[in-house]
């Protein structure tokens, strides 16, 4: 069937645009960080284009086109929501891995302490927003509200991700300094211990 309704054409365009400009970049970002394409998102994308294909059938009526497009739009919203949820988890884990890897580095040396303060604050607020979004999800809150809540958490986690990567060279620098400090501290401890033991032995002899 040739879709002649300008309203239908606009809805189709909006779905394609939203997929191209939102879903695809979010999935690409997730794949780049975690090397995976979650099956839940893949199923939503399949459903979107499955309903899409039906609107072009020669036998469908305008009312049926409305129905199929509504279903596609609902699956699109769900796909975007899942993208935000999975990316929140991915970036949450990224931050924890970062802090574990550089736990001995004095991050307060970067930007006079501003860097450490910002990433700590951003993560704490992102974590709070994610927790609130999860609570809303359990309460079966409206999908549009859930979308906005998970998006807000994602934005903060992404802000942290970008900030950390913009300062990673400085992070490596203070981390290297910390490793040398720990090395010489440990070395000095064993030297002192050896000298103390030698002193005791000589005093006995």
Task: Write a concise keyword list for the protein shown above.
205 residues
Helix content class: over 70%
Percent of residues in beta strands: under 5%
Number of strands: 0
* Rg on CA atoms, Å: 27 Å
- Could you give the distance between the termini? 105 Å
Q: Which overall shape is indicated by the principal axes computed on the Cα atoms?
A: elongated
- Largest β sheet strand count, sense and barrel closure: none
Order of helices and strands: HHHHHH
Q: What ranges have pLDDT less than 50 throughout 5 or more consecutive residues? A: 180-198
Count of helix runs = 6
Mean pLDDT: 84
**Helix vs. strand class:** mainly alpha
Give a short summary of the structure.
By secondary structure, the chain is mainly α. It contains 6 helices and no strands.
Describe the protein.
This protein has six helices and no strands. The protein has helices at 6-34, 39-54, 62-101, 114-138, 143-166, 168-204. The chain is mostly helical. Helix 1 (6-34) runs parallel beside helix 3 (62-101), helix 2 (39-54) runs antiparallel to helix 3 (62-101) and helix 4 (114-138) packs antiparallel against helix 5 (143-166).
């Amino acid at each position: 069937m040739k879709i002649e309704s300008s309203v239908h054409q606009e809805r189709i365009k909006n779905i394609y645009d939203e997929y191209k400009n939102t879903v695809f970049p979010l999935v690409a970002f997730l794949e780049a960080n975690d090397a995976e394409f979650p099956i839940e998102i893949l199923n939503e994308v399949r459903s979107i284009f499955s309903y899409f294909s039906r609107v072009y059938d020669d036998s469908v009526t305008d009312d049926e086109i409305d129905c199929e497009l509504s279903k596609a739009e609902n699956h699109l919203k769900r796909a975007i929501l899942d993208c935000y949820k999975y990316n929140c988890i991915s970036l949450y884990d990224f931050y924890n891995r970062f802090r574990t890897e550089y736990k001995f580095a004095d991050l307060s040396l970067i930007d006079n302490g501003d860097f450490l303060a910002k990433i700590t604050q951003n993560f704490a607020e992102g974590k709070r927003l994610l927790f609130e979004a999860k609570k809303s999800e359990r309460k079966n809150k409206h999908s549009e509200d859930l979308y906005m809540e998970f998006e807000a958490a994602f934005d903060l986690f992404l802000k942290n991700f970008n900030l950390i990567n913009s300062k990673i060279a400085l992070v490596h620098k203070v981390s290297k300094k910390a490793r040398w400090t720990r090395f010489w501290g440990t070395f000095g401890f064993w030297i002192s211990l050896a000298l103390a033991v030698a002193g005791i032995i000589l005093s006995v002899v």
